[in-house]
Fold these 3 entries.
Entry 1:
Amino acid sequence: KDANPDPWADIDAIIGVGDTVTATVSNIEPYGVFVDLGEDLEAFLHVSEISWDKNVKHPKDYLENNQEINVEVIEIDKEGRRLRVSLKNLLPKPMDAFTAENRVGDVVTGTVTSITDFGAFVRVGAIEGLLHNQEISWDKSQNAKSELKVGDEVEVKIIKIDRDAGKISLSKKALEASPVKAFAETHKNGAIVTGTVKDKKDFGVFIALEENVDALIRTEDLHPLKLDEIEKGQEIKGVISFIDGNTDRIRVSVKRLERQEEREAMDQLNLDQDDSMTLGDAFGDKFKR
């Protein structure tokens, strides 16, 4: 009888995908760890399967030789005679722990871990969230590269949690007063305003009404002005047709301006009329024969 039978001859009876087994660390490499499962079986634990932390620099920071660990079998390659295991699958998922303690709207403190062209990643506990450029400040000229550096501690508000994707979205500007909301308290639909052209798009023109308060004039609302004749820096007068401080959106219409000014002139005329004027004074001529 063979004293050392081949374990791969009857591997299905020994182990299966999804099984939790105890293994001993036998060799540590920068790219992963080899573990001994017993039964003359060795498995590979890739560096990405050691921890939910995506920034594992070296497995030796987490494991040491001859250490016993529990792992989950995630792949059995019979043809290649290879086993792959995972340690992180047996650890609590960071998103589960995060959502147990945090909700959308919570204000938390995190550390900037990296900065990209589109924003900054901020570590809050064991989770990294995205602080998008548009959520840095109400001042649109500011972005992650101009305002932050790796290692900075920042206070942010959680504005979105996507458990399925394992992502959270953060905002710094949400902790500051919204300039548009303040503007909306003193300006309503129908108010006449003047703004300076900041940008032109195919669908319309963006104008600055106040510092960090912009409005859109859609192409169809520009009449009698023509889009191709408008230049940056030009002042345009119009009527607020839509304003919402909660979504920070303002729309202005030039087309409605003439009609609005006529209405306001009539209202003023009515106010200026002599209060002593009687109905007979107003319609006297009509009653004369």
Note: The longest helix spans residues 257-272.
Entry 2:
Amino acid sequence: MPGKNREPRLEESYRHCRDVVLRARSNLARAFWLLRHDQRRGMDALYAFARQADDLVDCPGSERDRRTSLEQFRHELDHSLAGKPVGMLFPALIDTIQHYQIQPRHCYDLLDGCAMDLSPRRYANWDELREYCLRVASSVGLACLQIWDCTDERALQPAIDCGLALQLTNILRDVRSDAQVGRIYLPQDELARFGVTENDLLSGEPTASMIELVRFQIVRSNALYASAWQGLSYVPEPARRLYWLMHQTYDRLLKKMEADPAAIFRTRVQLSQSTKIWLAARAVLRLV
């Protein structure tokens, strides 16, 4: 298992990754306890890597400084994969990659996706936005399959689509706050198709055209969630419970937006605490 060798530096690295997860505001990250101990440690390392990459992009400072920091992080990954793990994070990450035979390209794809957020940009169409989502989300999903001991190739496409669905759900519920910092993720051709401008997204006052645009994105997301659901039967226990919890949590977020599309322009849609507890209880009791 990852970190079975009790080498002090490696253990310290895994503790660092666990601390990153515990400090996170992500309820799903905290649900890693549904997994076996070794899988949980692997997920901690993967999450800590993704979290640090994301933080480097969103931290205060100029675009140049943030780009330099992300490039340095990439170089640290290079050196670590070459057999010289650096810092607090990489010993655990490399141990996880080696133990579960994770393809390093998934880590590089994630960094490439994060780099796309360094400066304000636009996505001409769904193909371009899909490529971004593949890099920042589906890459992580494919790495998770390895940690979860999922060897069934039929799980690959559902995992890819699950990443796309989760990322598109996040894009929808953050559409206004992202626009306020210059990030417009919704495809430009679809904005034009529905007659929605970037100023409309900033206004906080949804028009009929904006509502139709959101509904169009929800239809796309529902199709992705339907595909992702097929992966449930291919993911072995105990990871199946975590996969189910991730799917159901975000699918229910989407359902809330579907019931009230205008809400995303007023606030960040969230599930109630009671719903989160109910979903977690179902996962724990394996009622999935």
Note: The chain is about 70% helix and 0% strand.
Entry 3:
Amino acid sequence: MDIKKSLMQKNGIIVMALAEEFFSKNIGDRIDTVGSISEKYETSRGTVQTAIKILQEQNLIAIESRGHLGSFITHLDYNALIALTGIDNIVGVMPLPYSKKYEGLATGISETMKNMDIPFNFAFMRGGNNRLESLMRNRYDFAITSMFTAKHYIDEEEDIEIVTSFGKNTYVDNHGLIFRRETDIKKDDFKVGIDYSSKDQVKLTLNYFNERKVQLVSLKYNQLINSIENKEIDGAIWTIDENIKSNENLNYVLISDNIYNMDDTEAVIIIKKDNKLIKELINKFLDANMVLEKQRQVIAGEIIPQY
């Protein structure tokens, strides 16, 4: 494809703009008239016609005129169109993959995004607060959080939106109070680990101990279990996963997630509201059902996590 040379010429900017616009379309959609497109981009009709011709000649799009009904899209090469928009890689950020659920999510998303011709990578970062902040600073194209965290920031009028949700128990399993088997969980000087960078864990912890006087100890989420085992703290709210259930030194008491409609257990993908191109890209290339199947296979030990 020699289209890169075309981008260096006079029509380059409008070709890139139209590539992004056509990427958001579907086969069968009616396109705007040349006149309305030229007004939208404040350029001449001739420039628009030339840009559309370039896209057609490179077989990125095909358009069929249907007389007074207008012109309709009959072919779209999404991979080639996205390559013209200036995006040369996609990077998402998600929690540290310490559980099979997270490894399954990472594997499933990475696998389904292979349908793109653009390189895709994950970064890993603890704390929904940290991931949101990095997203808003444009360090990443999208972030994975719980539904609970996403709704919290949307309610606080953060400029984000949810583009994909995966369903209950796709982010974590049910939560519980984790403690050493010999620990009296009703004692007055109970030391509780809390990670202030995690909206979910903070809210669940404060709600559970609402009517008790306990000592809150600030720790990173991935340090909580070791801190319990090392007797640095007495307990912490944590997801009841396979590692907890098989740990002979620990015990747990399930807590109710129903007060949050189990939103704390559901994985979602969030983006900045103004990032329409990434929204279209995720909607077109991400197969949520495939992601969930890969997650199931990782949890069941049927496949090795790859991300």
Note: The chain has three domains: 3-84, 90-170+264-300, 175-256.
